[in-house]
Design brief:
- The chain has 142 residues and is an alpha+beta fold.
- It has two domains: 72 residues, no CATH class; 59 residues, Beta Barrel (OB fold (Dihydrolipoamide Acetyltransferase, E2P)), CATH 2.40.50.
- The chain contains three helices and five strands, in the order H-H-H-E-E-E-E-E.
- A five-stranded mixed barrel has the order 1-2-3-5-4.
- The longest helix has 29 residues.
- It is rod-shaped.
């Protein structure tokens, strides 16, 4: 008893789908879809060369298209910042006079030690300042 070519293509499709599930690498899914396309060609009576060409063309086309779409999605998504990186660029209110040597600000609902970026500038209590950088537990403001 001889197994038809389309059955072998479906076995290959399942075989390629297993690593897709185990590794979460979408490329295996594209190859599996290509194997299904090869099975369709085989079931319609296409020769071995046609089956392999359809498998390769569908697999490569899916990989190229899906990767380009995924790349655009990743590039368009804003980056999420957390921790002290999320505090850079935020505004704060001076609680105690801030100069080049120190002071206190209220930043994101918390009291932070702070110092002025320019040692010659003094910020009085109640003034809004911009956080330029976080140096340890001290906010550098301007």
């Amino acid at each position: 008893m001889e197994i038809d070519a389309w059955v072998w293509w479906l076995i290959a499709a399942v075989g390629l789908a297993i690593p897709l599930v185990l590794t979460a690498m979408p490329e295996f899914g594209m190859l599996s879809a290509g194997a299904v396309a090869g099975a369709v060609v085989a079931a319609l009576g296409g020769g071995v060369v046609a089956q392999v060409l359809v498998f390769a063309a569908v697999s490569v086309a899916l990989i190229v298209v899906v990767r380009s779409i995924a790349g655009r999605q990743r590039a368009g998504r804003p980056q999420f910042t957390s921790g002290v990186d999320a505090l850079k660029g935020r505004q704060a209110v001076v609680v105690e006079r801030v100069d080049g040597t120190g002071g206190r600000i209220k930043l994101a609902g918390e009291i932070w030690s702070a110092r002025a970026l320019d040692a010659d500038i003094i910020f009085e209590a109640g003034r809004q300042v911009d956080v330029v950088e976080i140096d340890g537990a001290t906010a550098i403001v301007m």
